[in-house]
Amino acid sequence: MIKEGIRSNFRVFRVEKRLSQRDLGNLLGVTTATICFVETGRINGTKVFWKCLQNHFNLTSEEVSKLKEIDFNGTQKS
């Protein structure tokens, strides 16, 4: 059974940058659906996806790791 979760840090990051899912997808060269699926935890995103995000926004590896975290049932996975 797959637990449902959400990448709330990733979503908050996108919203703080004032980007829609479409806008972020366009910046990273992926579809709106990809951004949605990464946010909702349906897919993990590839190494290339996360590296592209890191490079575009000049993020550290630690910051990217935080964005990758998934909340399961309202609790943060550590």
Write structural notes for this entry.
The chain is mainly alpha-helical. It has helices at residues 8-16, 21-28, 32-39, 47-57, 61-68; strands spanning 5-6, 71-72, 75-76. It contains five helices and three strands; from the N terminus they run βαααααββ.
Briefly characterize the structure.
The protein has helices at 8-16, 21-28, 32-39, 47-57, 61-68; strands at residues 5-6, 71-72, 75-76. The protein has 78 residues and is mainly alpha-helical.
Give me the secondary-structure category: mainly alpha
Could you report the average pLDDT, rounded to the nearest whole number?
89
What is the total tally of β strands? Answer: 3
Low-confidence stretches: none
Backbone shape: globular
Task: State the helix count.
Answer: 5
Helix proportion range = 55-70%
Question: Key terms for this structure?
Answer:
mainly alpha, 78 residues, three-stranded antiparallel sheet
List the helices and strands and how they pair.
Layout: E1 5-6, H1 8-16, H2 21-28, H3 32-39, H4 47-57, H5 61-68, E2 71-72, E3 75-76
Antiparallel strand pairs: 1-2, 2-3
Helix pairs in contact: 2-3
